[in-house]
Structure formats: C-alpha cells, structure tokens
Amino acid sequence: MFFNPYSGVKTSILILDKSKNLESIYFASLNQDGFSLSAQRNPISKNDLPQVFKEINSKSSGELVKFVSKDEIIENNYSLQFSTYINEDLESSDYEIIQLSEVAKLIRGVNFSKKDQFEEFNDGAIRVATTKAAQAHQIVEKDLYYIPKELIQNKDKYLGDGDILISVSNSLHLVGRTTFIKDLRYDMSFGAFMSCLRVDPDVILPEYLYRILNSKKTKKFFSDNARTTTNISNLPNEVILNLQFPLPPLEKQQEIVDEIEQYQKVIDGARQVVENLSISLEPEPHYPVIELSEICNINSESIDPKKIYKEKEFTYVDISSIDNLTRIINLENKLLGRDAPSRAKRVANKNNLIISSVRPNLKAFCKVDFEPTDVVFSTGFMILECITDKVLPDFLLSQLLSNFCMSQFISKMGRGAYPSVNLNDLKTMKIYLPPIEIQEKVVDEILVIENTLKHNRDLINIKENQISRKINSLYS
Hints:
Low-confidence stretches: none
Largest sheet: 4 strands, antiparallel
Number of strands: 28
Number of domains: 3
CATH superfamily of the largest domain: DNA methylase specificity domains
Radius of gyration: 26 Å
Helix content: 25-40%
Strand order of the largest sheet: 8-15-11-13
C-alpha cells in the first residue's frame, strides 16, 4: 500500500494486540482503501477494506488475507513479508521446493571511493564491475572500474565462471537484475551495490539458477519485497536468500538448460541484427542545406490533462517510454487526469516525430505510427510536424539519427546534470534536403530495414516467451 503524501513507497503496517494470544497471524494485502494514491487523496470507488475485514472476521484465508501459523513464521526466520507465505504455484510443483539459501551463498561487493580509482589499468589494479557494467546479457568492459588489488581483502570477492551477479541497490525496475559470469579472462571483483551468488554445483547448476532468477515470478518477488525509498530500491540479503523455487534433479536441470540455450542462441542472433541494423542514413552533402524550421512545425499543440481528463485515464509518455533501439513507444503508463505530472503537456498526431530534448545523444527519437488518442507526451520531447510537400517523416527521422545531426545535437547540449537542447536549437538544426522523389527512394530502403528489424524483434519475443513458458512449467 502507498500512503501519499506521507510516503511515496510501498508501506506495511504492523498491528499489535497484547490482549490476544493467537497461534496464527493474519497478513492482508491492501491495494485500495477508497481514496486515490495521489497527494490529494480523492475518494474513489475501489476499496479493499470491507473484504479484508470480512476475511479476518471469518478467521480463514481468503483472496486478500492469509492466516499464517507462528511456527511457519519462525521457520522463515521471522519474515513479515506477505509474499513469503503465498506459495500457491509452488505447492502444485512436481519438484522439491527449496530456499535459495540452501544451495547458494551470497557475497557482498567491495566498497571503494572515487579516490581509490585508477585512470588506467596497471599491474597493481583489479577490474571491478558495478551496476553500470553488469548488464542483463553481459559485462560491458568499457564501464569497468580499476581499483587497487589490496582493497579486495576476501578472496571470495573474486569472480569466477558460473557466478551470478545481482543488483541489490538500483531503481525499482532494475533491482534484482542478474548477470551470468562465463569465459572470464582476467581477475575481476564487483562493487558494493552488487552481490554475488555462488552455488553448490553438486546440487544446482548455476545456469539453471540464472534462469530462475530471470523469470517473471522471481522479478515480481524481488519487486514486491524490495525496500524502496523515493529514488532507490534495496534488496536485503534475507529477501534474496528466502526466494523459494522448484529444484529438479541435476539431469533434469541440464535438460532444461540445454533447451533454453537453443532458444537463447536464436535470441542472441536476432538481437545482434537489431543492434547493428539502423534506419539512420548518412546524408549526401551535394543537396541544399536547410534548417528544420523551414520544413517542420515544432510543438504546435499543448494541453492541460488535469483540466481535460480529470477523473478519466490518459496515457502518459515520458523519455523512459521510448525504446531507443526499437523506436517503439510504450503505452502502458496510464494515469488519471488529476494525477498528471506538470510535464505532461505535449500533444502529437499520427506521423509526427518525437524527439527527446534531454540527452538527445541517446537517440530516444521515433515516429508516431498510430492515432495517439488520449495520449499526452512529456515536455521533455519536441514534437515535429513535417510539412510533407517538403520532407517525408521517415526520411527526416533517418537524418536526425545520422552522425551528421548527432554531432549538432551534442554541440548544442548544455553541460548540466540533464544536458539538453532547446526549441531554438532544434529550429536551427541543419540537414541536407534532396527532392521528394529522392526521399521516397530512401524511405523505400528504410522500410526494408524496418521490416527486417520487426521480424527479428518478433523472433526475440517468441523465443523469450518460450523460455518463460518453460520456467513456468516447473511451478505447476
């Protein structure tokens, strides 16, 4: 439950009644209490409290309330996390259910400060992976830090093949992200916002555990149990080690790992295509140079969703909603009009271009290829309406993504915490503009590229769903 304006994060309430001596404790999951979760706390129709009171008075577990015996709480190291005792899926598994603490040990990362870091690697240094370097699919070598070897007092903090790094302090949607260590060519440790899971290989295959940790069930468990403040979420040791999951025999684990690995090979190949194939095309410099203000209307329309939508839902698109690899807009962020953030102002139409003004070098640009009904964009975007007898939207997008335009964006960006470009910067951006018939030929090339990208993105989704189904089958 969230208790704005006093707490903007999930909150638990512990009720103590010394007059009673019960053998069971009730846990209740409360999502709505009859008021909105905004700072205004306006009355709404959804209210879980009557159902919670009804189930508590019946003294039996129900949809929102679960009665847990004192013995079970003691067995779980006095955990008061509701999710610890919700095991419907686990109870129907064909395999033994174990806690992570039974098959792996958790090693915390090394603390170091900026003054400990070396500019370049040397004989007295060791490489250290932090949350930036430890990405979902690999260690990004260019983001490793170099620190003195003597800071690593415990040899357990040296990574080895088969270790699994887990992010224990991050934003809520990234906390719990894991990286599988393999084919390590040099000594490496890991930073304080990371932990390392090291398994007993006689009981569990590290590749099998890695797949369990990457499942939607585990990610939800970590998200539900993270200790979240306004800006950061933390995963305590006991939460990670209390994770429960099915453990088949080693032969079955190997069979599962081998099957998933075949899916993963297809995903990796398709992902390489997506990452290396781009719709950005470098301009031909013999065409006239023009400024964007000559071929586009920029930020033509703005609204106040608080006044327009009030108690109705709208879709809010901010910078994080744009996938800068696929150019796809995520439309899952639904808000009530009264809860609209102050930056929710921009309106776009089909075939408009959405350009991030904050850190444009990250290329959070895309074309609106749908009718954006009840969609409001952040003021962190510039909305470009192409004058189509002068420039085609797909052609312009390919040019804005080119190195020629990116160098202009970078030269115009400020140097603050959020480097950005302003409206005048965008209006004075220059591109080479060929005639419409040449643009049409370029767009035909872009469509071939986009179709190839779509095919590979669809292939990634299909194979990822096959992996999810395989893992889910272990639970029931």
